[in-house]
Amino acid sequence: MEKRVIMDGKRRKKGLAAASALLGGVLVLSACSGGDGDGAASAKTPESQAQVDEAAAQKTSKAQISITPKNGAVNASINKDTKVTVSGGTLTQVTMTTEGGKSVKGEMSADGTSWAPTEQLDRATVYKIAATAKDADGLEAHENSSFTTVSQANSFIGNFTPEDGSTVGVGMPVSINFNKAITDKKAVQGGITVSSSSGQEVVGHWFGNQRLDFRPDQYWTEGSTVTLKLDLDGVEGAQGVFGVQQKTVTFKIGRNQVSTVDVATKTMTVKRNGQVVKTIPISAGSPDNPTYNGQMVISEKFKETRMNGATVGFTDDDGKGEYDIKDVPHAMRLSTSGTFIHGNYWGPDSIFGSTNTSHGCVGLNDVKGAGDPNQSAAWLYDNSIVGDVVVVKNSKDKTIAPDNGLNGWNLDWASWKAGSAV
């Protein structure tokens, strides 16, 4: 029994030695696969990784595409924000579509490094852009973006006068009426410039928070050209409300015509370029309804128009207008509140030059139907343009408010400049 035990012990030692050798082999193999063991094996790892990186780089395009607005943007501009550019290559294809699949026209630059849409985008619309470019080795790069343009509720525009390409009188201001209340007036005014070829200094003045007018110190120089630039695209006029206008407007200043109405003498003197060209008898506002004093600018012309007293507060006991004339001839507006200079066919000839009888307008002799060019009202109408100045003096009424019509000339220059936000 004792001998057999000894032999079993030897066998056990041999078995442990074999197991130990086998386990050691496993451990050695595990160490080699980890990178912290055999030096020769681990030295090959960075070399092979560099080879992999180099191979990957050789298969990747060097062209780098950039798209604006950035992917996921909201309140994007509808005018000038959208652009695709590339560095290290050239663009080979750019497509821009609405979410519904409608294509947007665009134009590639001559060198193939940029693309932009050639049409104005719609508001509150999702657009998608897909761009492809190639580098010098012909390897392609791709980029995609999607963004949403500013909504109607989150955008503002300015309705301006005078119109592009028009010719106006020397008193015509640039008047911009915004369709949303502006709280950051400095930012908005900073995006607008008005200049004259005459070199006159032009300054803006705010009337409330939705109207901004521009004018020089004195009337515009006759024959000059005025340029209005609206660079409001993306300008935040109020919290979360952005401008969407990018426009340049030019208009010409015509001859210098200023007509002066003397309510006391009941005459109007028309001067052109400083010279008297005509003196016309008139009938201004009656003592009960006097005409405003001040410098007024013709803002609209109507060969015939309706004038109803109820629309400007002249009503009888029944609430009807004290007058309702459906065919007032040769009417030219001087104020928002209803002051006109116009023809009068219903009054006798004797009132012109002798009696003030109107409800505040300036009346000139005329005929029903506006068909006689020899009448005083017809002559003035034919020889006046929007922007001409009509000055009323010696009336018993107050001076017209500068924002009642295009009549900011009734503010002195210091007061005008004080209303600027820049």
UniProtKB/TrEMBL annotation:
This is Ig-like domain-containing protein. Residues 1-31 form the signal peptide. It holds the Pfam family YkuD. Keywords: Acyltransferase, Cell shape, Cell wall biogenesis/degradation, Peptidoglycan synthesis, Signal, Transferase. Coiled coil: none annotated. Pathway: Cell wall biogenesis; peptidoglycan biosynthesis. The active site is at H342 (proton donor/acceptor), C361 (nucleophile). Gene3D superfamilies: 2.60.40.3710, 2.60.40.3780, L,D-transpeptidase catalytic domain-like. It comes from Streptomyces solicathayae. Residues 257-393 form the L,D-TPase catalytic domain. SUPFAM superfamilies: L,D-transpeptidase catalytic domain-like.
